[in-house]
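Re: the multi-chain job from yesterday

Posting the exact lines I submitted so nobody has to dig through the queue logs.
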Amino acid sequence: MEPVLSPLDACLVLLTGWIVVGAAGMLRRGNVVFVARVLFPLGALIGVGLAVVAGWSLALPAERVTLLIGLPDLPFHLRLDPLSRTFLALLGAASAGVSIFAGGYFRKGQGTAPGVLGLQYHLFLASMGFVLLADDAYAFMVAWETMAVASYFLVTSQHGLPEIRSAGFLYLLIAHVGAIAILLSFGILQGGTWQFTFDAMRAAELSPTWAAAAFGLALFGFGAKAGLLPTHVWLPEAHPAAPSPVSALMSGVMLKTAVYGVLRVTFDLLGEPAWWWGLVPVVLGLATALFGVVFAAAQTDMKRLLAYSSIENIGVLFTGIGLAIVFHGVGMQALATLALVAVLYHAVNHAFMKSLLFLGTGAVLHATGERNLGRLGGLIHRMPWVAWLTLVGVLAISGLPPLNGFVSEWLLLQAFLFSHEVPHPFVNMLLPLGAAIVALAAALAAYVMVKFFGVVFLGQPREPGLAHAHDAGRLERLGLVWLALGCVLLGLFPAQVIDALGATTTQLIGSVPPQGASPWWMLAPLPDRQVSYAPLVLLAVIAVVLATTSVVVRRVYRRDVRRAPAWDCGFARVDARMQDTAEGFGQPIRHIFQGFFSMERELPSAFDRAPRYRVVVGDRIWRLVYEPLGGRVQRIADSLAWLQQGRISAYLTYSFVTLVTLLAVVL
Amino acid sequence: MEFAVLLATPLGGSMLLALWGHRRRAAEINVALSLVTFLAATALTARVIGEGNLLTGRDQFFIDPFNVFLVALTAFVGLTTAIFSRPYMRVEIEHGRLNAHRLRLYHSMYQLFMAMMLVALTSNNLGLLWVAMEAATLSTVLLVTLYRTPASLEAGWKYFILCGVGIAQALFGTILLYFAAEKVLGAEGVRALLWTDLAAVKGELEPTVLSLAFVFLLVGYGTKVGLAPLHNWLPDAHAEGPTPVSAVLSGLLLNVAIYAVVRCKVLVEGSLQSSLPSNMLMGFGLLSVVLAAFFLWRQRDIKRLFAYSSIEHMGIVTFAFGMGGAVANFAALLHMTVHSLTKSAIFFAVGHAAQKAGSQRMEDIRGLLAMNPTIGWGLMLGSLAILGVPPFGVFASEFLILTTAMKQQPWATPILLVALGVAFAAIFGRVQSMVYGEATGRRLPHQPALLPVFAHLALVLLLGLYIPPYLAEWYRAAARMIGGG
Amino acid sequence: MSGLAWFTQLLEVLAAISLAPLFLGWVNQCRAWLQNRRAPSLLLPYRGIRKLFHKDAVLAEGASPLFRAAPYVVFGAMVAAAAIIPSMGTGLPFTTAADAIALVGLFATARVFMSLAAMDIGTAFGTLGARREMMVGFLAEPALLIVIFVASLLSATTALPLIAERLATQAPALYPSLAFTAVAFTMVLLAENARIPVDNPATHLELTMIHEAMLLEYSARHLALMEWAAALKLFNYACIGFALFVPWGASTGEPDPAALLLSMPVLVGKLAVAGVWLALLETVSAKLRVFRAPEFLATAFMFAVLGLLVHLLLGA
Amino acid sequence: MNFTSLDLQLLNTCAALLLLVSFAMLSQRRIVSLVNLLALQGTLLCAATLLLAWRTGQHHLYLSAALTLALKVVGLPWLLHRLIRRLEVYWDTEPLINMPGAMLVGLVTVVFAFGLAQPIAELASTATRNAIGIAVAVILLAFITMITRRKAMSQVVGFLSMENGLFFGAMSATYGMPMVVELGVALDVLVAVLVLGIFFFQIREQFDSLDLHHLESLREDQ
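And the result, structure tokens for all chains:
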């Protein structure tokens, strides 16, 4: 039967619904209960609806609509195609969890009034939706910048603190610079037609050089939003500054819009990318991945840690995009599809995992008021719900089977494994080594996550105050459960997910991942290579073993369990200060990857009464790129200042000289 | 009829207020007069939309799409500024910065200024245009020096001398134009300076003379537009005058000056058949944008900051007109509109902010959002709008200008973009630190009139998302008339 | 998949589980001989496990459910790995459940749970052990992956049984790349199974221990499971090694118990040799300082990459 | 219209004298005599206008001559003299460029102006076409005068002499502008000077001097 609304109309209605919900909050700006307990759950419902619509219509052909608003010669064009549907589904599903959590999260506090916050929050969501729908340059830019501004306001909602202000400033500045680059890239993409609809860009013929330029600009622009090296600096500042649900959205969803942008420009608008373009994102991506995870390991603030881990995942995503471009360019369709699927899959996974983790930190933050790992610990006893649900996210993002993080990683490695077949010297030697870096990053991610979870939730509480920590509320739990469930299901049913992604890959590179004769519970993307992966079986085996062993242990040897003080090699007075701090746990990394950091240490001597150890880990790139840049501009400004020294005769001379020169020119 | 009212109201108003302006209800009268002017302007606009161009006053006055929308804009901003200045000036008096007869001067000069701008916009006679411009300058000189502080006197003096000299150049340019026209239209005095007649015969005008004339006119009126390096009066005048005056200076006077430049450019281009005038405009435009962007980095005074941003935007507009062609002109007109709306809105917010903080130095202004959310949001959103952040209208025009630049002057695009980036960093960093943070400063004795701020911003937002068809048509007609490219 | 196949699979798993401690005992015995000490009984590991199962479990007060669950999870993961690795037969049902990469993932899962459990009590040693374990892990994993890559480049698949099958069925040739990777693999094996030179299973000297430090708080059945899992891990690694480098002798084709039993002696033989080889290595090499471990593993990684490049260059 | 050579000679003499006066202003340091020179310039202008009016018989030229007389010969100088007396500013301080330098620049400017005027002059049908160059020169010289002076008062004088130059230019190129414009211009000039008068007093009471170096506080380079 034919539904009353076409999917696109439905999406429009839902996005408008978000705006309306947000606006409704302004009616009773100060009323937390109304905004948080009523509006945010509504927003979550809309999110679910969006996910359902997009997911259900995934395989349908693209449909368009042209709105009345916009520029007179360039009204807003919207288009709903498999690519946008995929990301809309991502947006809806992830934001649903975040919104429902946020409903329980926001309380009365200083900073922006709840109503305003709700408005900004839902505008943020809606603008992301429109970014995914936009089908002409103007609409896209409008949605894109609105997204940036809305998130900026959310980031700075606690603007009392100077570091939050500077974080917001840095964020918006880099976002704006990126937007300018994107605009330029569109300017090239239209290729002489001077039509700024995406259709015109698809039709436009570009010379290889210009196409490459457009790609480069787009990569830079979207990379700036995604946190690709070297424009990553805003990310670890902005994420901790924002309220946790917002960090969750920014990291989980907003970064993905950048990935969407790159995919859209590269495969849809540019059409046939040259294979060697792919090398740039591969190299940048690998560098970013390694950089991000290494820095994550050195962090002591849990949200900064997660932010850096986001940088790592972005790196992985861009590596995958690069691989896809290379394979597609040299005509290795199957592998290109594989890489692309890996990218899309990982985008979805990361949306769930990272949102889950950020929300977990949010719950901890609320319960303890602490973001510093050095003052947490042992929370698994106080807040079991949060702890166990966060554990799911931790295992997932560490890339452990049978959860979802592993699947996309597996796909990417599979793609890498055969990159030696690329028919170009050096490339075919170097690309496989990329696999090693990806593996290293993944293993390090596991390290980081063990540190994160172990220090926050395990061990003994490092502060007496933690004894009063309370578990998450009902709405918060609901949000966490939703996202954790997502992680598990995405991990257990990869074959189905990949089938669903088929429509998108067809749209982008015109081929679907072959899902040969393998049974429904098994993932076998490369039939000719007979590799396969069946998470359900793995889970089953482990479960069975677990069950049998525990039963055997219980039945056969009936021995009971005693509680006693920790043994610790017989050392009696164990206390919390003897556990590793975050710094301690990160120490091996700092030791091994010294080259990455600019560190300043403060080591205690053996004799001082109150020994204290302090280490500050700085980002070299900041000192190498950004500080000089700012200084340069300031210097230019200063050197220009003498032009205006307040002497009227000087000013008169200017106009005299101008007049005479112009006259001379004319003659 | 409407036209007579349009010019007579402010003229008569200035006389009336010159006598009455210090009494209790003077401010309300001021508002009422502006309202009448605005109504007349809208009526006139409606009529021109209906009946097309309009020649009147023995052909001395002429209304076409190009100037009628500027007339409407001027009348509108004039009205909102009058509304804004009512509480503002009252506070100034309570702070003892003004007294009754200064207020009288203010009101009367304000109306006179309005009248002169309207005359300049509508006059068909280039000589009359010049006279009106000079008169407008004189009236604003008195407004700038209203506070009689050393700084304001200095600003006023510079304003007077620089613009005076500039406008003298413009007069010589006009003379040359007349000289050239006489050759074609014959010496029967009066008609030879009528723009309509000139435009009709612009093809036959003597190129060399016109190119010389254009140089003088450009340097002359360009000084009033604030094109670098002739801009030096502008920041001083904006910073030291009362805020309503800064608002109208930025929002309206610059527009009128640009209008004059463009009118002349049309004639000269018509006769020269060369890209010389366009190149000059583009050169001046780029130079202004770049210089202003870098000067923004050194500002400590909030009004100076936004004065430089005005220079930057005038540069953009000039550049766009220089490029010429349907799209660029359209974008330039749109940019003139949104800029004057946004910038005056910003100045309103700035005025209140400065009054609260009791200082124009930016490091004294903190935590506006905490102090008075409406002012804070006004300033924040206004700045975002002026910085070309969508969905505000400034982005729409900048989008068109940039894309056209990519098409017609690719070399200029990177320069523009760098300048825009620098300006963004400079302005936004400062605005943010003023809007956010803990509140300092005292309560305002009067509830600030922020209706104008949000009215303007709403309009700008609308123009960013939806340009009504008739408005677009109107712009297009004007763009066609300006031609070039 | 017939019931027979499943039965065969079960048989293999059980064989692995039961053989693992024996292999461990054998290695210890060889080591003792080589260091001319009186060798402990071959069955010592079994006795140890049995003894531990008969004891009352003592849990530290701060222990969370995670601490109690970990041993089962680790053990389960290892068993799953054993089910997947073609120790005796290649055509078994579970072998399709995961390829070599997934196998690495399984080991990682076990490692992560062990480390988390170690951090759970919040003692100095536990966290120290966890930290070092994770460090060794993230250095060893890429090396292992590259090793597997080289093998899978030779056999154009990452499914371990297929690798074994294809390598076994190809005309026996000398692969220089495999030679390099074999070295790398051995080093990884040593590191991953807490053997000298990276760790010392026999020591409880606080400052040097890694694996033992994590188990300090465990007792009774939990400890037993952990020990058993460790033995199983060693066994698994050995079997991976066989599959990659000496794939001959495993039963191929349709799974049936008889073939499996036939291939059992071959496996035992390989294990015996491997045990001697391991013991020899551990005897001749000295325990490294913890911060030499990265260099050790970096060397392993280097070997693996060399193998890869050699393969890409020579196609062999 | 029929010009005898005598008229032309007279006109050209006026023009030459105008130029001379401009140079004199450029070098003059006493404000009082500066104003007198301004008056003299006005007179010459008036004379030239009358001559033209008489010869060409264009009546509106009589009017503008009258305007000139009223405004530039009598009105403004008188006003300025009063101001000078009221404000006691008789001397300008040392100009920014010393006399010889100023002269040199002036000469170059004159050459430039003449060169500039050539093409216009060729097109002009008026008898006075050769004077256009002079007009331009006067304007530019006045410009330099304004640049080099340090007292507000003398700057204003420079400004007014620039107006004279413009006027002369208009006359010699086109026998004057349309009446509307001329009236407007005259009005503006008058108002301007009145405004300036007010200004002087304000500046004076603020800084108790008309020295421009007081007016250099609004600047970027600090």
